[in-house]
């Protein structure tokens, strides 16, 4: 493509009823450096340095039932040890609404954050 190209996602921003509480939920349950707009996290961090890996950027039909129709987006997070993460999330009160494995693609599970935003957790297939 040459000069003037996008190299990755630089941020993800959500509107929230309680930005501080929602940021804390993401930090405590998913280990993400999540902040309330204009403030660092409690450790002074402003951003999350995630591991490099594939990112799907896909458009769905307006009437798709892949995620709730009242939501414009669904965040998909790459994870390690999906089962252990789901055990921890369920112990914290999260409900797993969908689970599947796709040959050659990996394992998926769907939850919602405390404000109803859909999250898909994706564990890519193990490298041979």
Automatic annotation (TrEMBL):
This is VOC family protein. InterPro entries: Anthracycline_SecMetBiosynth (IPR052164), Glyas_Bleomycin-R_OHBP_Dase (IPR029068), Glyoxalase_6 (IPR041581), VOC_core (IPR037523). Residues 8-124 form the VOC domain. Pfam families: Glyoxalase_6. SUPFAM superfamilies: Glyoxalase/Bleomycin resistance protein/Dihydroxybiphenyl dioxygenase (SSF54593). Signal peptide: none annotated. The lineage of its organism: Bacteria, Pseudomonadati, Pseudomonadota, Alphaproteobacteria, Sphingomonadales.
């Amino acid at each position: 493509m040459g000069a003037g190209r996008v190299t990755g996602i630089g941020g993800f921003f959500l509107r929230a009823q309680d930005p501080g509480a929602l940021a804390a939920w993401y930090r405590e349950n998913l280990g993400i450096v999540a902040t309330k707009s204009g403030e660092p996290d409690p450790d002074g961090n402003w951003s999350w340095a995630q591991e490099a890996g594939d990112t799907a950027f896909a458009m769905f039909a307006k009437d798709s039932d892949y995620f709730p129709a009242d939501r414009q987006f669904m965040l998909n997070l790459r994870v390690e040890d999906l089962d252990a993460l789901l055990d921890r999330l369920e112990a914290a009160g999260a409900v797993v609404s969908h689970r599947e494995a796709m040959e050659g693609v990996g394992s998926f599970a769907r939850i919602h954050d405390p404000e109803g935003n859909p999250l898909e957790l994706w564990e890519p297939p193990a490298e041979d």
